[in-house]
Design brief:
Elements lengths: L5 H11 L2 H23 L2 H18 L9 H18 L2 H4 L18 H14 L3 H12 L4 H8 L3 H21 L6 H11 L8 H10 L7 H26 L1 E6 L2 E6 L19 H10 L4 E5 L8 E4 L5 E6 L1 H9 L6 E2 L9 E5 L5 H13 L1 E17 L2 H5 L9 E7 L2 E10 H13 L3 E3 L6 E9 L3 H14 L2 E17 L2
Parallel strand pairs: 6-13, 8-11
Antiparallel strand pairs: 1-2, 3-7, 4-5, 5-7, 8-13, 9-10, 10-12
Length: 496
Amino acid sequence: MSELDDHQLLAEFARDNSEAAFAALVQRHVNLVYSTALRSIGNAHAAEEITQAVFIILARKAQGFSRKIMLSGWLYQTARLTAANFLRGEMRRQQREQEAYMQSTLNEPGADAWPQIAPLLDGALEKLGAADRNAIVLRFLENKSLREVGAAMGASEDAAKMRVNRALEKLRKIFTKRGVTLTAVVIAGAVSTSSVQAAPAGLAAAIATVAITKGATAGSSTLALVKGALKVMAWTKIKMALTVGGCAVLAAGTASVLFAQTDKSGADDSWRSIIHFYSRPAMEADLADTPPQVTILPTIHPHWGSMWWSDKAGRRLGINSSVTNLLMDAYGVRTTHMIFPGPMAGGKYDFIANLPQGAEAAFRQRIQEQFGVAAHKQVVETGVWVLKAGDPEKLRTIISNKKSPHQELKYVDGKTIAVLEDEPVATLADALEGWLLRAPVVNRTGLSGRYDLNLKWDNHDQSKSVTDLVDQLHQAGLELVLSREKFEMLIVEKVK
């Protein structure tokens, strides 16, 4: 008896709620999904959770899954999307050592090829068409034979070979643009041997058990990933409809939002992709590949948090940013150091400013033209918080010996728990501004050591939270007092 294909197994699960059919699907594709998540996140525990979320989504969508969709390609894309959703809250932690890979250019095959390819592979695959991407996924990420690739794609073995070779050549050109010069043969070998990591033992069985219930027994963090990914998947369908129709009116409660998928010139707006925020090398490469421009458009990512990034040359890229966020990015000043003339214009925007020179100045000018606001720095008298050293005995109790800097915010039962480990007081002063105080914090402790602190406050009562924070710092040997001093602020003004 021949082995059932993916769609037959999925149909059996949808029709009969067959645990065996779904378990077979998970076993067949778990390494693909886990490896994709692991490359994107770089964290094995998070990759396991993302893998579970992807198969829960598959279980929920099994009833209406089209036979026209190749499951391997769908699982790959869903894993990428779910990983991007995970990264939304981890962006600051994701800009790390992968930049070093961008500097290497090896022409010979060898062990060093994969480290060059790894941080760029998924971003490059996103630039391929669906057919080319599916061919690469099947051939190298799932190690299918050319005959199996052809069968999955409804083509002959020879046609599959041609498709794979064309896709590899496209990958080679993309890598070359990013400073990694390798032959198609080397790329094929490196991806085939190194891209797929075996999922942990027992993960497939555990996922199947949870996914079959469509997430009913999943943990809260996994369900949050599922919910976020489903939202983005739904939004992606709407976005595709807008591309076909040109523009549309979307109802959101009682409000209507009208916008076009691309700017008025009809220029490519692929720079607005969530995928571009995976890593610094990916963003630098995408900024370099996008035609030079300064553009601010109504967002196509209303379900995401604000994300923005800039480089040393002043080029910048962002999504779902308010006018206040735009000003923060344009002038490099957080809102706690700004003075506004009144309420800012509403709405959220995606933006890019990637001129080879003068991008920052041009971005500020575009903000002025579109929103009628400009800004300048000026020393004024304003309210500030001053952090001072208090009781030396209490301070000694929070001296760190962990040798591993870390800061984190947790939200539990309406409370915020702030954790700082092995951090200097200057980091605490900076963090207090953004966490709760919403005003400049001046560090006058004179302390040079590193400390551990755990602080907690109520999200629903601002005044009580500040009082509690002052008390907790006092117990730790630090004094936080309100003062009025001369301080450099960004003065935002309305202009014609």
